Amino acid sequence: MAFSLPDERELRGLWRARPSTIDGYQRCYFSETPHGDRIEIDFNYARQMARILVALDSDRGREYISVIKSGTIIQERELASKRSLDLTSRMAVFAKAFAGLPDANVLRVIGGNYGLPILPHLPDLRGDRWREIRPLTRVWSPVRYIRRRLKARREREAGRSFWESLVHRLPAELADLAIGGALVWAYLNQWLNLTELAGYAGALGVFSGALDWVWRQRDPFLPKVLALMGVSAFAVYTQVQYRMWAIFL
To answer: Torsions phi, psi of 147, nearest 5?
Structure first.
């Protein structure tokens, strides 16, 4: 349910402050809306970190936590179940309430996430209306970016069978394996030594798995990763054997 502040009297009594009771935070701002919703913001000045708790009366008092550091969301979850979820819809309704927060440092750390204001925005005391809060440009968050791409991937693959998914990702996996094959070919033609082959193949295995997870937004293809890491392990093993047998030559 949206929150509104009709006059200056309610604005002045909206937020209260106290020392934080949570380890790692120094200050706590808290408020309760006329609808029974509760907001608590614990703040660490040195680390520029804010922990926002909202409890919605319309959601049967469930409590949700968001931890933000220097404009980047590093954690979002329901407090009781510890389940991760996107809190945008639950936080955005308090935009006007956050506009009355008396600490500009806290709003700067929140960084416009959830559509919340970046600076305190007091009402025009010459009238009884709030000034319009202009839309804010959301600070780019890598966590939110990866989560959004993962959600898009789940929706995209929901209707695909196992074989359809395999055929869809096969060209990219074959391209990664082709690079690994090129490294082996370069070693066989003496363009690379065993140390270089082990290093390049191992790095390719790790990088291709990370590329699957971060950019292609899918689980790493384990046969490909194991094959590349196997080439690297075989090169290391072979080099060790050569050095051991060299003792007897």
So the answer is: -65, -40
Cβ contact 147:86 at 8 Å = yes
Closest CA to 54 of 85, 25, 26: 85
What CA–CA distance (Å, rounded) separates 17 from 34? Answer: 18
Residue 160: both structure tokens together: 């695909």
- The kind and range of the H/E element at 88 are helix 88-91
Cα 79 to Cα 82: distance, rounded to the nearest angstrom: 5
What's the CA gap between 89 and 234, in Å, rounded?
52
| pTM summary value | 0.46
Amino acid letter, 171:
P
Closest-CA residue to 186 (of 223, 142, 235, 221): 235
| Cα angle, residue 211 at apex, residues 204 and 201 outer, rounded to 5° | 5
Closest CA to 88 of 112, 122, 61: 112
What is the Cα–Cα distance from 92 to 96, expressed in whole angstroms? 9
Run of H or E including 17: strand 16-19
The one-digit pLDDT tens for each residue of the chain (249 residues) are: 444 443 444 544 578 888 988 888 999 999 887 778 889 999 998 888 999 999 888 887 788 999 999 888 998 988 888 888 888 888 888 888 888 888 888 888 998 888 888 876 554 433 433 333 333 344 556 666 666 666 666 666 565 666 666 676 778 788 888 888 888 898 888 888 888 888 888 888 888 877 776 666 667 778 888 888 888 888 888 888 887 776 544
Six token digits for residue 26? 């120094």
Q: How far is CA 187 from the centre of its chain?
A: 40
